[in-house]
Amino acid sequence: MPNIFEKLFGALNKKDKDLEAPVPVAPVRRDPDATMPLPSLPATQPMDEKKVIQIQETLSGAQEAVKRFVVGVAQDVGRVRNHNEDVVLVFTGHLAGLEPMPSFGLFVVADGMGGHSLGERASGLAARKVAHAALNQILPSLLADPQSDTERPALREVMESAMQAANRAVVEGVPEGGTTLTCALVIGEQVIMAHVGDSRMYIITNESFEQLTRDHSLVQRLQELGQLSAAEAAVHPQRSVLYRAVGQGEGLEVDVDVRRLTPGARVLLCSDGMWGLVPDEKIREIVFAAATPQAACEALVVAANEAGGPDNISAVMVQLPY
Question: Average pLDDT in the 213-241 region?
Answer without folding.
Answer: 86
